[in-house]
Amino acid sequence: AKSPPLQAKMHAAIFQMLALSIAPQALAELPPFVQLGTDIVGQVRADEFGQALSQSADGLRIAIGARSYNSSQGYVQVYEYSNDGWSQLGTTIYGDRRQTAFGDAVSLSGDGSRLAIGAHGCGPFPIRGRIGDCSGLGYVTVYEYLTGVW
User: Given the DSSP bridges, would you call strands 85-88 and 93-94 parallel, antiparallel or unpaired?
Assistant: First the structure.
């Protein structure tokens, strides 16, 4: 199979495992997963949307990172599943500057109310007093979802 072109928009698709009570030999013929809702699509081509994912314990919230957006400024979006579809929860969280790869790692708490976002590129603070020194000092930012805002 051919891989998609590098410039293609990234998608995230979430699946739910079905509980099947059938003969084991028939399992190989049936798909054990069913997609929940439609694909969730990134903002722009080659933003690497979906490269980092994390779900709440019940699987109804998902955080999705896009570390390569806007020269690796990156962003993260959180979605909630209800009524057979995914809706964005709060606004998009953008990295504070380029070359940080913000959204390279994401982790939602079990209840989906806290979100840790990792960035492996330039940290938010100058290194040795030089703004823009990108020696790979990363950082993690933690958010809490309160009254509709991260």
Answer: unpaired
